[in-house]
Amino acid sequence: MSAILHCDFTREAPAENLAADEALLDHCEDAGGGGVLRFWEPARNFVVVGYANRVATEVDPGFCRSAGLPILRRCSGGGTVVQGPGCLNYALILPISHSPQLESVSSTNQFIMSRIGAAITPLVGTPVEIKGHTDLALGGIKFAGNAQRRRRRCLLFHGVLLLDFDLALIEQSLPMPSHQPDYRANRPHRDFVRNLGLPSAVVKSALRQAWGAQESLVALPEDRIESLTRERYSTDAWNSRF
């Protein structure tokens, strides 16, 4: 297995942070080498739709405009999320050769979420559940959603963990999703999501240990982050494409 480096890297603008995940994936794909475990924690609230989500269906644009919430689009699939202070984002960029379990979408989901769940279980004192396709939950209540984007040689698997977020903002910003996992059972947002109530430093330490990410990533693909932010993640053509 190749070594995994870690970085704790948050840009001021949400669009820059989304661009950074894809830039790290591009760098891994083009340059080769080992994987990266990145953490970032947003300083402001915003909405992120999945790559193929329709904004008009999955978001309440009127509320978001009135509340000053940007609506952005990420490069990976999955559903729409609201995030801001109290959320911990992580991104794993891995060569597919890192493990045979990374060869398919479904086995990648199971491999990565099982390891993350095992790392968090001792912190909360109860087993973390893998629910739906890419949710992590406690007692059937979701605290993390995840998604992936694959290239030929490398993949990006990223997600957001609710630690101490304003959960009421989710119900204000998002209607019921057009697609939902069976375990949700039509529950409204207020009954379906929860915070972990853990310090971010504790969670980050557990995940670094789980992935053996002991050494820091020194150089970031700054030019690629800037170009992706400028040409994609900060443009209406990208964010409102559906």
Summary tags:
eight-stranded mixed β-sheet; 242 residues; BirA Bifunctional Protein, domain 2; 11 strands; alpha/beta; three-stranded mixed β-sheet; 36% helix; single chain
Describe the structure.
The strands form 2 sheets. This protein has an 8-stranded mixed β-sheet with strand order 7-8-9-10-6-2-1-11, sandwiched between helices. A 3-stranded mixed β-sheet has the order 4-3-5. Helix 1 (14-31) crosses helix 8 and helix 4 (105-124) crosses helix 7 (200-210). A hairpin with a 3-residue loop joins strand 7 and strand 8 (135-138). The protein has a single domain, classed as 2-Layer Sandwich (BirA Bifunctional Protein, domain 2). The radius of gyration is 17 Å and the shape is globular. It is built from 9 helices and 11 strands. It has 242 residues and is an alpha/beta fold. Helices cover 36% and strands 24% of the residues.
Question: What is the topological layout?
Answer:
Blueprint: E1 4-8, H1 14-31, E2 35-40, E3 46-49, H2 55-58, H3 61-67, E4 71-73, E5 81-83, E6 87-95, H4 105-124, E7 129-131, E8 135-138, E9 141-150, E10 154-162, H5 168-173, H6 189-192, H7 200-210, E11 215-216, H8 222-233, H9 236-239
Parallel strand pairs: 1-2, 1-11, 3-4
Antiparallel strand pairs: 2-6, 3-5, 6-10, 7-8, 8-9, 9-10
Helix pairs in contact: 1-8, 4-7
